Amino acid sequence: MTTPDILIIGSGMGGATLAYALAPSGASILILEKGHQLPVRPENRDARAIFQRGFFRPRESWFDSAGRPFNPGNYYYHGGNSKFYGAVLTRYRAADFDGLAHADGDTPPWPFRYAELASWYDAAEQLYQVRGRLGEDPTEPAHGGPYAFAPVPDEPAIAAVRDRLKRIGLNPFSLPLGVDIEQWSRYGRTPWDAFPDARSGKMDAETCALIPALAYDNVRIESGAEATRLIASADGRRIEAVDYEQDGEVRRVSAGIVVLAAGAVRSAALMLASGVGNASDLIGRHFMNHNLTAMLAVDPRFTNDSVYQKTFGLNDFYFGDATCGPPLGNVQLLGRVSGAILKADLKWAPERALQALSRRTVDFLIMSEDLPDPKSRVRVDGRRIVLDWRRSNMTAHRGLKARMKASLREAGFPIVLSHLFDRRTPSHQCGTIRIGTDPKTAPLDPFGRSFDHRNLFVADASTLVTSAAVNPSLTVAAMALRTAAHIRETELAR
């Protein structure tokens, strides 16, 4: 049984960022990762393999509340889900930390406000080499300085769409992106959204955090290692050891500090299966998963010959519409939706016809906040993961779709098609082990430390109090940097 100073379970955005920040401390760090490094292979840029054949999807099933199995779209590789993410690295809006009144309910305030996380956002943007431009988005919160890199440029067809939206009074802004488009394009002229990154230009958790962390002699990773049980000490105050399965064997590791970073579903499921950290009876509850709709705007006179497309977004309806109603959400371009991608959902249609359609469309992602509800939860049934997700805030989502459809028609797209994503799409899962100041209402303190076990921390999206209506990756990274600083100051300084 090995005994590192720090054990991190998971190498996604939270785990890898935490390892990066703690590596210079000299503490011995072991990372357990269920997956392996994603290899360089032709399927990485093959839309048919990714979308039609599900080449990279995990060979596992989760279950809904009725006991029906489904194949989740979560990935197990060095870098976790960030290997496939759209590389949008957006800050929560400042008001998202305050608690907001929504059409279908209210969100609670965080245990701290935006100002507490602002400098950590600055640091996370530097670490993940974010490309962007300030001053275009009226909802953008205060930054400590400009982005270090210019935004990823619009392709000509997308620049024309941006101009159309400006002419009708909207404020398209350059998405803050973690992608080196020149390097990415050298490996293949494809989108990056949902295409896996084998260290080919996407600024994901492996590229920017895990690989630099592993350059330190005191940091190592065990691949193909799935944590199965957290073992509490006799007095229940600490996590004494962790069991994991690797190469068909059950192994055990003990560590001074244990950090869970396996994702909002798996971190909660591991704690529930282990019977630890749940004096509040809130582990697994408040599961949130953004309400997402793909929207295709069609103009028979328009030719979309772009390759990657995903360069701008809209927050004009983030805090409400022109009538000053409740918040509606965020809109951003999707990665280019080709005929091969459309074929995955429209199996009856000829791919050639779908490709002809795609040349006349521009593709958007409509995103609304999912509100925290204790009845929306992750449970375990033996070794089964049960996901009882209860959608919320659909009044806002329908309102955002209606406003965006009207705007697109005004901008010259007479046909607007839409498709609501289901539970098979991991739409920014979060909230299942949230932070707070009262152990009766939250399992973790504001730094992600368990109220029940002093040496147990959580550093992934499960800690988020609310989902806001933006991609959570940068917030997870910023909070991991903050948690790492707290661990250095309170645990490693002794």
From TrEMBL:
UniProt domain Glucose-methanol-choline oxidoreductase C-terminal: residue ranges: 425-480
Segments traversing the membrane: 6-32
Keywords noted in UniProt: FAD, Flavoprotein, Membrane, Oxidoreductase, Transmembrane, Transmembrane helix
Cofactor(s) required, per the database record: FAD
Domain of life: Bacteria
Positions of the Glucose-methanol-choline oxidoreductase N-terminal domain: 200-290
UniProt xrefs under InterPro entries: FAD/NAD-bd_sf, GMC_OxRdtase_N, GMC_OxRtase_C, P2Ox-like
Coiled coil region boundaries: none
SUPFAM superfamilies with a match to the protein in the record: FAD/NAD(P)-binding domain
Entry's family note: Belongs to the GMC oxidoreductase family.
PANTHER family: PYRANOSE 2-OXIDASE (PTHR42784:SF1)
Protein name listed in UniProt: Choline dehydrogenase-like flavoprotein
Organism whose genome encodes this protein: Labrys wisconsinensis
Biological classification of the source: Bacteria, Pseudomonadati, Pseudomonadota, Alphaproteobacteria, Hyphomicrobiales
